[in-house]
Amino acid sequence: MKxxxxxxxxxxxxxxxxxxxxxxxxxxxxGGSAISDLLGLVTAxxxxxxxxxxxxxxxxxxxxxxxxxxxxxxxxxLRRQIDELHTQLIDYYxxxxxxxxxxxxxxxxNDNQDFQFVSAAVIGRDxxxxxxxxQIDKGSSAGISVNDPVITNSGVAGWISSxxxxxxxxxxxxxADTSISALDKVNRQTGVISxxxxxxxxxxxxxxxxxxxxxxxxxxxxxxxxxGGLYPRNLPIGKVLEVFPEESxxxxxxxxxxxxxxxxxRDVFVITDFEGQGEVLDDxxxxxxxxxx
Amino acid sequence: xxxxxxxxxYFAYTVEILVLYVVEQTPGLxxxxxxxxxxxxxxxxxxxxxxxxxxxxxxxxxLAGLLTDLGMGNTLGFHALLAAxxxxxxxxxxxxxxxxxxxxxxxxxxxxxAFVFFFQWLFFYVFNPHNTAPWYALTSRYFPRFVYTLAFMxxxxxxxxxxxxxxxxxxx
Lengths: 293, 172
Fold this sequence. Notes:
heterodimer; A: alpha+beta; Thrombin, subunit H; 6-stranded antiparallel barrel; 7 helices; 42% helix; globular; B: mainly alpha; Arp2/3 complex 21 kDa subunit ARPC3; elongated
């Protein structure tokens, strides 16, 4: 036993534990490190290639595993669709630009000239996370920074929770760490979007701090209110499902079905800059600095 | 002169761990079971530690742990510390205390993975003030993840056993 504690291996283990403990304390306080950057430079391109291969293989496998009957049925359905599309083609060119304007996130920029977008692909999903956090293939070198909103064509997907040079991590709207000031688009009722593990498992989020059961109605669209400076206003979040009383106080909350399925999303846009971004954070920083003085 | 078989073997282990990391992080490659996805990179490090010296085991545990930390993006060093210590202990036990076979691999794997996921739940879920329903999270997410990850032990044990036996000088 005495030999064991004097062995080179054990001394090496103690050294490693000591160094790792230092790294742990450093990253816990600083929130990032050169080691993360370095490892990310190696693993991010590998993940990108792996994701592309996996996506292509999934599409190929889907075709290969279908039965003859399924293919015949799909063929008939596609023929019907072609007929329908022929009739719609007459209006197609006229409607094309208008359609794209509503459906593409790039058109969002027309209404929000102050928005700066970076498009990114999802390259990794960590199995250790319970709230479907994912990695994207763009990092600080593309202008992305912590707290930037992440959206898709459909609406809000989450926010940037950490960033390295080559990739960034997105905490989704299903996470308990997410808190968004929201607005019911129909009756202008405000609330706060949050979640917990039980809601996340059902794929829904919660709009809290509602004053009454009638404050929002089933089917109402919920958008970002813009308060807080983390998200620009009017980004779609989801659709109201049901309203319940809170167990802990006299307010009500609504379950909201997000418009973005964050469990399967593949491509996102990061809003790197918009008018009013971080205003409240800056005010808070200034206030806390003032208190310290 | 350095043992070229050892270098090749270590290189193979490193590639194995890197590939497993990329595969576990790739969306959609491993299907979700009860909402959980596996973390085979930790299982692989334990399996490697059973066939190598304690320092080599520690090094591969360190690599697997660092990659897990990188994937989680929270605190770099948490899993690295746990995996390095546990893999060192596996190396010592495999050399002095236990027989190296599938049963001991499964038992050691179960014990270590249970510890790692329990600490993960404690530090990253329970200690996060935003999270609620910790017992629900433990049973509905962390336990299925533990079982799913442990399920990789037989195949990774046999795979690394093959590496350890085949990539050796003929005289050994």
